[in-house]
Amino acid sequence: MLAATVSAFAQAASAPSSPAKKELVRKVLQLQQQAIEGTAQALVEQPAARLLQQAGMALQTRVPAEKREEVAKAIQADAKKFADEVMPLMRERAVGLGPTTIGPLLEERFTEDELKQLAGWLESPVVRRYQQLAPEMEKALSEKLIGDTRATIEPKLQALQQSIGQRLGAPGAPADAASGKKTIPPAPKASAAKK
Q1: Is the overall model pTM greater than 0.70, yes or no?
Q2: Which end of the chain is more exposed for a tag (fewer CB within 10 A), N or C?
């Protein structure tokens, strides 16, 4: 009896989806295009933001005060150029991959009736408004969270960076300062900032 149940389940799982189910999957993917594009955008913005954060810290120690603003603007321009070049490619590719990556998961894990319900829910004006508001809500929370915790977190982050620098034997780490040896960290390579 167990073998018959397993066999029936395997046949059902490997059976091709109906045209109606495939159309529902296509509709759900279309309704989720903004979220798919958002994933691509995050994949571009997160590493760029980390690089900008690292550059901001390096500016304070490696660039003379009178040149910091100019260098910061140049770095911002490089980051914008990167995003402008990469973002359209990532969005287009993400939307193109949706049917072959997300589509099979939807077909496999949702029944036709569930896909109808999901599409109806995604088409709801309330859900659309909520999805449109989501980036603004995330930004508001992030800004407030960073503002409220910066004074506590930054010293801990700097201590972590110093600890890591000491463990790696990086020049300019507190061990060098204690020995009286003055070290100047090397300036970042221009080509590395543009990649």
Answers
A1: no
A2: N
